[in-house]
Amino acid sequence: MTTTVTTPSAAPGRAGADSVPKRRSAPKKRVSAGRVAAWVAMALIMAFTLLPFYWVLRTALSSNAGIYADPANPLPVDLNFRAFARVFGMQSTEAAIADGGSGAEINFWLYLRNSIIVSTLVTVGQVFFSAMAAYSFSRLRWKGRDAVFAIFLAALMVPSIFTLLPNFVLMKQLRLIDTLLGVALPTMLMTPFAVFFLRQFFMNIPRELEEAALLDGASKTRVFLTLILPMAKAPITTLGILTYITAWNDYFWPLLVSYSGSSRVLTVALAVFKSQAPQTGPDWSGLMAATLVAALPMLLLFMAFARRIVNSIGFTGIK
């Protein structure tokens, strides 16, 4: 008979303690000089970026007399909202002159309506027609397509000021000077950037989807309207926001073709507001208040869609 000799095992508690690895504390991140320098540089950049906006707000909340009395004060001098009252036409002529304004009546709501109409016309027309051109350059096959697209992109290098005189002559011949349509028409059709932006996205749409729709009997027009455009909702929205902001901030062309309040937009109205200066000097608080009111809608619009704009540009591959 053979006997089996067994060796005693280690104590359960000791074995468990030996088998469990000891947790090491996470190493503390050391604050390097490069990281500190990067944060300081970022803080300085943010300060220089936001300082003009703050100074506009500070001037708008100050009185004209306080601005001239203490121009270096970083806080509003004689804090009040009378400048905004002048902008919205809620202040009498005598009170406006007493506050350092010109006392001239400013139809702010008319200029706001004109800016909305012009920006909407430019955005809707430019996005739609640019989408049609981008679809033609990216999905349709026709002779000379790439050469035409290359020439079209070359227009990106032409300064817009070179086209002002030909556009003005064209609007004059069409009798559209001093009209809202004349202000919007030169940029209503398409731009090279808009076509290039949408073409990059259309090229990433699988051709199998379009071919399946064509096999089901859909026409090219129906494919474009019911398939391509809904799939390009994100870049089209981004392009629409960028176009709306650009049209809203446009100044030189509206100044060139608008002669009266019926076609004057907000950016031109601000220049007219500044030119109506009293003998004591420009109404700086009123001008800054009008600037804030005119810029606030676009600032809120961009802040609301900033992430979508960045994601759409990154998706299209634009650098």
From TrEMBL:
Q: How does it sit in the membrane?
A: Multi-pass membrane protein
Please name the GO terms of the biological process aspect recorded for this protein, alphabetically: transmembrane transport
**A Pfam entry, by short name:** BPD_transp_1
Q: Which residues cross the membrane?
A: 36-57, 116-135, 147-168, 180-202, 223-245, 285-306
In residue numbers, the region (Disordered) covers 1-26
| InterPro entries associated with the record | MetI-like, MetI-like_sf
Write down the CDD domains for this protein, in alphabetical order: TM_PBP2
Has keyword Transmembrane? yes
Q: Which UniProt keywords are given for this protein, alphabetically ordered?
A: Cell membrane, Membrane, Transmembrane, Transmembrane helix, Transport
GO CC aspect terms: plasma membrane
Where in this chain does the record put each ABC transmembrane type-1 domain? Answer: 112-305
Look up keyword Cytoplasm and say if it applies.
no
**Localization of this protein:** Cell membrane
The family assignment reads: Belongs to the binding-protein-dependent transport system permease family.
Designated name of the protein: Carbohydrate ABC transporter permease
Q: Which organism is it from?
A: Actinomyces marmotae
